[in-house]
Structures
1.
Amino acid sequence: MADKTQVTEDGKGQTTEVGSLTVTDNRTGSSYDIKIKEGTVRAMDFRQIKVDEDDFGLMTYDPGFSNTAHCRSAISYIDGEQGVLEYRGISIEQLAEHSSYLEVAFLLIYGHLPTQAELDSWLYQITHHTFVHENIKEFMNGFRHDANPMGMLLASVGALSTFYPEAMDIDDEYQWHVATIRLIAKMPTLAAFAYRHSLGLPYVYPDNELSYAGNFLSMLFKMAEHKYEPDPRIERALDVLFILHAEHEQNCSTAAVRTVGSALPDPFTAVAGGIAGLYGPLHGGANIAVVKMLQRIGSTENILDFLEGVKNGNERLMGFGHRVYKNYDPRAKIIQKHIDELLEATGKQNPLLDIGRELEKRALDDEYFTDRRLYPNVDFYSGVIYEALDIPTDMFTVMFAVPRTSGWMAQWMEWMNDPELKIARPRQVYTGARDVDYVPVEKR
Ligand code: CMC
C-alpha cells in the first residue's frame, strides 16, 4: 500500500508526493519497499525481487506502454479525463485564438513565449531556410508518379541528414538549433514538392514574403500567376490547424523520435523515425481513414448499419477514441469551430461533413461508445477541412507531419539534455523454444 511520507517543492510551485509502496512477494514471503515519486515507481526497483539468487529479478510487462512513463517532460500536458491540452502550461484554446504556429513552435522548443526581438529573429531564420538543395528535387523526381507523399516525405527528411553531415555532431548544441530551424523551415517545401510530384506539376520555390502557412499554400497551389495571394481566412485556418497538431506528448511518433534519438543519430534521422510512426492509420494516418470511412458510409441513412458493424467488432470508428483522452479531444472542438468559417471562405459544401456530424451524434448517443468513453479525436474533422482546402486524401498525414516537426524537435532536444538519457532497449518475455538442434535442409 502507498504511504504519503513527504511532499517536496520543485522550485516551480509544483508539489511532488514522495511515498513508498510495500510489496510482498507471495512466492517467497519477502517484502520490499519501493519508492513512489511523481506518481510513478521505477521499473528497475522491481529487479531486486527474486525467488533466489539465480533469478533475473522481476520485470514489468507493458505492451504498447499503456501504463509506462518513458521520460519526464515539461513540454505538453494532457488531462485525458477533463479533455485539457496545454503547451508549456498555456491552454491550446488560448494558443489557437491568439498565437501563430511559428510562435508556438518557439514556445515548444525554447520553453517560453518569445519576446518581439526573439520572434523577429526566429521568423527571419525560418523564412530564410525554406529552400532545399537542388539535388533534393532530383531525388524527388526519382519517385514513381503515384508515390505516396508520406513515403516521399519520410525518405526526403531522412535524406536531409546526408546534406547536413554536421548535424551528426550531437555534442554541439549550436547544431541542434540549426537542424531545428532547417527542419521546421524545409518541411513545408518537401511536403509541397511531394504533392506537386504526384500531380506532375513543376515544383514551386518558397516565397519569403509570405507567412509560413501562406508560403505553404503558395508552394502547393501556385500556377501561372506572378504571385500567389493566399486568402487570409484560409491562411489563418491552416495556421490554427498547425498549432493544434504541433505537439502531443508521448504518442507513437514522438516516442519513436525519442527511441531512435536515444541511439544518438542526427536529428534529421530521428525525425524520419517520427514520420514513420505517424504514417500508420492508428496514428496520423487516421485522418485519411476517417475520410475513406465517411465516403464508404456514403449517406446518413447508412450510419446505423455502420455503427452496428463497429459494435459487432467488424470495424473501427476511425477518428474516435484515444489512449489518453477519455473525454472530447479539445483539438477536435477547436477544429469544429473553424469548419463553417472555412467552408464559407472556400465556397464549398462537403457532404462528408453532414455524415460526420450525424455519425458523431449517433455514436455519442450509444452506450457502446459512451461506456468505453470514446469521443471524437483531432482526426475526426481535420480531413473534412483538408478536403475543403483541395488537399488530396493521400496528403492528409503529410499535413499532420509538417507542424508536428516542432513538437518532435522540442522532445528530441529535451531528451538530449536529459541527465537520464540512455539508449532505449526494452526487455522481452521470451516465449520460444530453447536448445533446438539444427536440422540440415535435406532432412527437414
Ligand atoms: N472504434 C470502435 N471501438 C473502439 C475504438 C474505435 N475507434 N477505439 C477503441 N475502441 C474500443 C476497443 O475495441 C476496446 O473495446 P473492448 O474493451 O470491448 O475490447 C476499447 O474501446 C478500448 O480500446 P483500445 O483499443 O484498448 O484503446 P487504445 O488506447 O489501445 O487505442 C486508439 C487507442 C486511438 C488506437 C483507438 O481508439 C483507435 O483505434 N481509434 C481509431 C483510430 C484513430 O482515430 N486514431 C487517431 C488517434 S488521435 C491522433 C493521434 O494521436 O494520432
2.
Amino acid sequence: MSREDTALQVRNESRPDRVHLRDLTLDELQGFVRSYDLPDYRYRQIASWLYDKQVGDFAEMTDLPLALRDRLGQDASVAALHTRTMQISALDGTKKFLFELGDGNLIESVLMRHDRRITFCVSSQVGCPLDCVFCQTGKGVFGRNLTAGEIIDQISALKKTCADDVDKVNVVFMGMGEPMLNLPHVARAIQIMNDPAGFDMGSRRITVSTVGHPRRMRQLADMSLRCSMALSLNATTDSQRGRLMPAVSSYTVTELIDAARYFAEKSGRRVTLEYVLLKGLNTSIADAKRLGKLSRKGPFKINLIPYNAGRDTAYETLSEDEIQEFIRGILPYASSVTVRRSKGPDIDAACGQLWTKSLLSRKKPARAVSPPGDTAL
Ligand code: SAH
C-alpha cells in the first residue's frame, strides 16, 4: 500500500492531509511503514511506541533516527485529541477526562477502579443522536461519529495515567454515543484493541454497550472480533421501552433478545442485560418477574444500574431495600443478577454529565461536522 492510499483510506479529522497512525489497523501500519522502504523492525518499534508506551508525539520515539521522525511528522500524526480537563474523585479515585478533538468538539471518558481492576469507559460519538429520557448525553447537541483513532486515543490517554496497572484494563463502550450507530469505526477500533501488536485485549476485556439494533448486533457478531456485548434493555415491555427510549421504539423486546442471543452464541460470551432502575417506571414486581424470564431466553446475565440523577430531578431510583426486593422478584427465574455501584459521584461521572456541563459554559459551539458514518437507525 502506498502512503497516498493509506492517507485516502483514513483521514485525520483535524489535518485531512495527515494519516493518524492510531486510525490504522496493525496491517495497515505495517504497510504504511513499508511504503517508506523501511525494514519491518521499524514497524515494530513504532507499534510499541503507540500501544505499549502511549506516546503523543514523534519526538518521543527516541529509537527512530531524527530525520525519520521529521519525515513521519510531515505525513502522519500520533494524537487526535488532547486533554482539556481531568477531575479525580476524592471519594473513590475515579478519573473523568474531557478531551478536545482536532475540530474543537469535546468528548468525555472515565477511568474507574474496582480493587485490582481498572475500567475505561470510552465514547463512540460526540454526544448522542438518541433521546433516552434518563440519559444526560442525549440532552446536548449531537456532533458526529468518532474515528477509530479517536476511540483508540482515549484508551492511550487513559492508559498513560496508570502505567503500572495496564494489564488489568477493561474497556467499555459506555461513554457518550451509541456504538451501533458508528459500527465501522467501532469495529476498526476493536480490531486494533484485539491485535497482539496493538493493545492485545481479548473479548472479556472489551464490552460494547448498545441500546440495541438487531441487524447491526448480528453484523458485529459476524465480524468475529473479540468483544462482549451489553444490551441496555431498561424495560420489559415494548410500550414501557417506547416511553423510556423513544428513538428506538421500532425494535421489539423480542427482536432485541433474539439478536442478543445470536451474539452470545456466535461469540461464546454471555450477553449482559443492563437495566437502569427508574422508580415507578420499570421497577414493579411484575417487571422483576418479566426481566427474570427474559434473562432465561439465552446465555444472559442481568446488571441492574441504580439511576444516577446528577443534577436532574425528574426521576428517582430505588432505595437499597427496594433494590433488594426487586432482586428477590428476579431471582426465581434468573441465573445471575448484579448491581452496578455508582463511581465518582462528586465529579459528574454519570453518562454525559461533565460534557453537558461544559457545553453550557461554552461561548462558541464546536464547528458542525457531518458524521462520517451512517447514524440513522
Ligand atoms: N448508547 C449505549 C452506551 C452509552 S450509555 C447504551 O445505551 O448502551 C451506557 C449505559 O448507561 C446504558 O446502559 C444506559 O442505559 C446507562 N445510563 C445512561 N444514563 C444513565 C443514568 N443517568 N443513570 C444510570 N445509568 C444510565
